[in-house]
Amino acid sequence: MPTPPENRELSPYTGWTRAHWEDTADRLLLAVRPFASPRHGLIDLPGPRPSWSGPRSDGLEGWARTFLLAALRVAGARGDDPHGHLDRYAEGLAAGTAKPGRADEDSWPLMADTRQAVVESASVALGLRLTRRWLWDRLDDRTREQVADWLRPALGPSPVDNNWWLFGLTVAGFLQDAGLDTDRAAATIDRSLARIEDWYLGDGWYSDGDNRAFDHYNAWALHFYPVLHAYLAADRELLDRYGPRLRAHLDDYVHLFDTTGAPLPYGRSLIYRFAAAAAPWLGTLTGHTPLGPGATRRLGSGALRYFLDRGATDGDGLLTLGWHGPYPPLVQEYSGPGSPYWASKGFLGLLLPPDHPAWTDPEEPLPAERADTVRPFAPAGLLVQTTASDGLVRLHNHGSNHVHSAEASEDDPGYARHAYSTRTGPSTAPAPADNHFALLIDGAPTTRGAAAPAGTGPRWAASRHTPHPGIRVLSATLAHGRAELRAHLVLDAPEGTPVRQTGWATTPDGPHAQLHPVHGYPADREATALPTGETLQGPGSGTLALHGATSGRASLFAALASLTAEPAPAPVADLAAVRIAGHTVHVTWQDGATTDLDLAALAASDDRAASDDRAAPGDRAAPDALSTPDDRA
């Protein structure tokens, strides 16, 4: 298959057009064909190991997630299917559901036996909904009934109390459209939407369950399924409710994409890669977006090219378990060889007709390319910092945690760092943690554990955590341009307890990192370099580190940090003048702007904030749900 030519007049940033998206979808779908079972009911892709759900579940996952891609490809072409994708998936649909639960070559697992099948039912149902007139309506009655029988268990309460509620919603939306189990489907939709309402915190941000997990699941799950359901159902009331939330989220979310096209590698399930483009496409599809049509395509094509140009597919054209190429530390236990194909969601833009302005308008620059930004995402306790000179994105985390985070628990590298960027780390054990503040107790660095938000402002965000029983830390990041001030107020630590602040984990060909002592660290001792090994950006990373020790009941530590791709950058100490008065930091930035922050006042609010946390409405058990602590998706 010849590759479509680039069009730099229409797409000056990426060169890509709709033809490239269609070509990429076809190549991905053709590449998985050799791994289909005899009647195409399962797609068993090669990989280093099965997921914890087992090989048969993985085969269903390979089928369901590539079926979603085929559905978007064919529905976007209004039924045109030159490669016969839907014929193969129609045969597989009949084979997989004929005798589900059997250990033969094609049969799908039952949801009662394999909980992961609930997840995959959403991709099956969404694919059927999108291609109904070209696939479902042409199936014989027996096949339609056996498919419906396989899907029906997803209408029950979610077995996992997080974004999983939306898988049942998606199945219910298809069955409702098909005129099957309409009353039960309607009840499932209402129950699912009511549950996620408990987690909506405003300004477009949901928590992913009864926790403070804020990551790409906000975009590719918690907004994706309700808004797409409302759109496909032509339900104006639902779209009027969820559409503005999507727009509010995208107003923040679009700042998380680098000028290279990279989304921010933060959180879990990052092997889904360009699924990160799904929500921006959805905003354009439904009219709920702050982005112009050309900017949406620039974001989507940039993300897709970013990964494909950096080895996301192997020599057989299969998506690998990793970020650029394979990267085992990024892979969760729930991930199997077919898992990366949830990236199919990123092809949602194909539902826009070829003459839509998103395909015909010239590409526009992303926010990271237009101006420097320091922007708090208040409900999530996050602070984004971008610089137009290099298009680099940094995210400072002062309120998001993994679903299982707890005080003094093992840190998840995808959530527990104080900062993330589109071109660095994170490092993984046994290497030292990058972007981390630790007490060194008996020579071992403490973990961060659960971080509770302590406030955000125009140029700052703060959080508190308990790294060791009886010791509290109030942390804050103040940012302007490429400069960051990292401040930590350590309370009730034993006199002389060693502390360590680490900086960005950069690879040899990556951006330039700086870390400079300001207060609490010996003024005559510059940062030392620690090897941090391979990260998702590549091998040979290193991070700078500062060391100090506590003094008195309350010890304040402050350091200036910088990450930049600018050539020969000025020392970060030249970018800000910092004055410490008691436990208040006063910063005058290079352009004369000022930021003041009283850390003691934020620390004094700990008791009130903790009380508020305990009273949060999300801290109750889900109705009619099993509370098994599982974050599979």
Automatic annotation (TrEMBL):
InterPro entries: DUF2264_N (IPR049349), UCP014753 (IPR016624)
DUF2264 domain span: 17-366
Compositionally biased intervals (Low complexity): 448-461
Stretches for region Disordered: 400-434, 448-467, 605-633
Segments of skewed composition (Basic and acidic residues): 605-617
Pfam families: DUF2264
Name of the featured protein: DUF2264 domain-containing protein
Organism: Streptomyces venezuelae (strain ATCC 10712 / CBS 650.69 / DSM 40230 / JCM 4526 / NBRC 13096 / PD 04745)
